[in-house]
Structures are given as C-alpha cells and as structure tokens.
Specification:
Blueprint: E1 2-4, E2 11-13, H1 20-26, E3 30-31, E4 35-41, E5 47-48, E6 52-53, H2 60-75, E7 77-78, E8 84-89, E9 93-94, E10 103-113, E11 122-135, H3 138-144, E12 150-156, H4 163-181, E13 189-194, E14 199-203, H5 206-220, E15 223-233, E16 240-250, E17 258-261, E18 264-271, E19 275-280, E20 287-291, H6 292-298, E21 299-303, E22 309-316, E23 320-325, E24 331-335, E25 346-352, E26 355-362, H7 364-368
Helix pairs in contact: 4-5
Bound molecules: zinc ion (ZN) (2 copies).
Organism: Methanothermococcus okinawensis
GO molecular function: ribosomal large subunit binding
Pfam family, one: NMD3
Length: 370
C-alpha cells in the first residue's frame, strides 16, 4: 500500500500506515534500557543477577564481558519469542575521574526476525551501556566481619590427631571447601583454629560444615555429632538464631593396629565409613565387621601397627618361613601361608602368650627404598 506515513509524512510504501523507519520504531523487535546498572563486588568479582553469583570467567576481561552479557540479557525484552538476539559486549571503558568504581561496558545488540503478520525478516541494532556499581557483596561483608554459622571440629576417637593427620585433614578440608563454594557461596572458612587435640574451623554456612564433615566421614570413617546453640534473635524476622557445632571423630585405629575385642586379639584389616573390619591374628581366615558404635565401647588398642616389633626373614621353603627377631635375635618359624615372600623381607610381629604372630609383611624392596 502506498500513501503518506501518518507519523512523519513520508510518501511511499507503507506498512499499517507507517513508513519503514517509523514502523520499526513503533514496533521494535526488542526493548532494552539505554543504560543498565549492575552491582559488582569489588572484593570477589561476583555480580548480582537475581541472586549474587560468582563469575565463570577467569580473567578480568572475560569477567567484564560476562557481566555485561548477563546484565543485558536479563534486562532485554523480545517482542516475540522467535526473534534471535545477539549480545556483543565491547571494550570496557574507564570513566573520567574514576578508579575501578567507574567502569562502563558498551554493548551492541542485534535482533533478527519478524513480528507476527510481517512478511519480511528485519534486523534491529541498538547500542547500550552497562555501568558497573562497585559494592561489597553480602558474602564478602559477612566474611570481613568474621561471620560464621558453624564450627567444624575434627578429632580422633580416644586420642589426639597426629601431626601427619592434621596436615592431611587440613588439606582435605580446604579442597572440599573449594568444591563446596561453587554451590554454596557462604561455605567459606571464616577462621581456622588449630588445637592440640585436633582442628577447628569456623564456617560461613551450616550446610557447608555438615557437608565437609560427611566427606571426612566417608573418606576416613568415624562418627559425626551435631549440637546447636541459641546465639540471639534476628531483629528483622524475629526468628531465633542458632550456631551449630559439628564434631567429626575419625577412628582411633589405623589399618595394621592390634586391638582386643571380646577377649580375642585382632589386627585392623580395613576401615570403612561405618565399620571396622578385624582380622583374627591367630586364624587368618576370620574377618569380622564391627560397627563404630560397638568398636568405641568394646575394643581396646593393644599396640599400634608401626610399634609392633620386627623380624627379618632368613629362610623360605614352600612349607615354612623362618625369621629372626631384630631386637633379641630369637628365631621364629611360621607356616608359609604368605604370597611371594623372600629372604630379607621384614615381618611385623605381635606376641601373645609368648607365641609370636605375623601381623604384617614389609617387602625388602620397599625398605631399601627408604
Ligand atoms: Zn514515517
Ligand atoms: Zn564479594
């Protein structure tokens, strides 16, 4: 249809009484503000969409591009769902008088498609600005004020943690925290308090503390106990505020330790999340599972595996193995029930009623390598 555009007076081809330019302005393919403000944490680089979130990008440039992209996407309305939108963040600009607090990212938006009733596809372009507002996110402000919801305590049953265990567990906790932070931004370590008997961590979120405790338990075995303490009342909601303490106790024993259980002597064969597996030292075949709750009450440590005395193998035949005690040179003879035993291998032995039992074998090669 030809005629005069009712908006600008142009004479020519009209769509619904409008020239092409006026039509595109009256019926845009998308709508977006000229300027979008987005809150960005100056400490951790997280930014606020509906909730605060950590950037996926690694370097500053890609983080800024990401922020500009999502800020635009979240504020853009398409006139129809079939319209394709391309969001292209440009080079970030420092505004005059500004440090990082005045940062602006121009964004080019290209929309392609047609509205219902239109017979030809068209393109619409728009340039906008995303302006960053540097603030401190709720997580960082809590972190800065040493906020914590939970204390995670790591201990061993009936003994202090050894220095090696402390080092290993601390490494494990920090790795777990790093993983957890991807899902729970509040799962940070607010404070680390090494203790003589174990390790204490103040954790930003209850869920984080519980999660780390259960990871420790599934790797090292043991028990978890949780207690809560009322610390106040939230002024805005009137709800009670609690802080929890999660204690995870790793097993007293290690594989190889010698324990007494119901008047028999056992070697700790393996340690699982909920159970301890004991092996009768006199009868190699018998292995029994004992739940931690029972083990705590009914077992008793006789000797640490590494404290058991040693004897060196001096002769091996298909039937017998002869070894000499490294301390008193006493000679012992055992049935050869071992796989692949050689002269020079070292046996860990435990003596009960003057009879020595083999509770472990250390290969000669591994000893030479030390
Ligand atoms: Zn017009
Ligand atoms: Zn932050």
């Amino acid at each position: 249809m030809k005629g005069f555009c009712y908006r600008c007076g142009y004479e020519g081809e009209l769509i619904e009484g409008l020239c092409k330019e006026c039509y595109a302005q009256v019926y845009p393919l998308f709508q977006v503000p000229e300027e979008i403000k987005v809150e960005v944490c100056h400490m951790c680089g997280s930014y606020k969409r509906r909730v605060w979130q950590d950037p996926k990008g690694e370097d500053l440039y890609s983080i800024l591009q990401e922020i500009a992209y999502y800020a635009t996407k979240d504020n853009l309305k398409k006139a129809h769902k079939n319209i394709e939108i391309e969001i292209i963040p440009q080079e970030p600009k420092q505004l005059p008088g500004g440090k990082r607090t005045k940062l602006e990212i121009p964004v080019k938006i290209i929309g392609k498609g047609k509205l219902p009733g239109e017979d030809r596809e068209r393109t619409m372009e728009k340039d906008i600005k995303v302006r960053l507002q540097m603030v401190q996110c709720p997580r960082c402000s809590r972190y800065m004020s040493n906020y914590y919801e939970a204390t995670l305590q790591i201990r061993a049953m009936n003994r202090p943690l050894t220095e090696e265990e402390k080092e290993e567990l601390d490494r494990f906790v920090r790795k777990e925290v790093e993983k957890r932070l991807k899902k729970d931004r509040m799962a940070f370590i607010s404070k680390f308090i090494p203790k003589k008997e174990g390790l204490d961590y103040q954790i930003g979120s209850m869920g984080g503390a519980r999660n780390i405790a259960s990871s420790i338990k599934s790797k090292y075995g043991g028990r978890i106990k949780e207690t809560a303490k009322l610390v106040g009342v939230d002024k805005s909601s009137g709800k009670n505020l609690y802080r929890i303490t999660v204690v995870v106790r790793i097993p007293e024993y290690k594989v190889g330790d010698i324990v007494e259980y119901r008047n028999k002597v056992y070697r700790v064969a393996s340690i699982k999340e909920d159970k301890l597996y004991l092996e009768d030292i006199t009868d190699k075949g018998e292995k029994i599972p004992v739940p931690w709750s029972t083990a705590e009450k009914e077992t008793r440590l006789l000797k640490r595996g590494e404290e058991c005395s040693t004897a060196t193998v001096i002769s091996v035949s298909p039937e017998t193995v002869i070894a000499m005690d490294d301390e008193n040179y006493e000679v012992y003879e055992y049935n050869n029930v071992f796989e692949d035993i050689q002269e020079g291998d070292v046996l860990r032995i435990y003596k009960k009623d003057n009879v020595s039992y083999v509770v472990g074998v250390e290969k000669k090669k591994s000893i030479d390598n030390r």
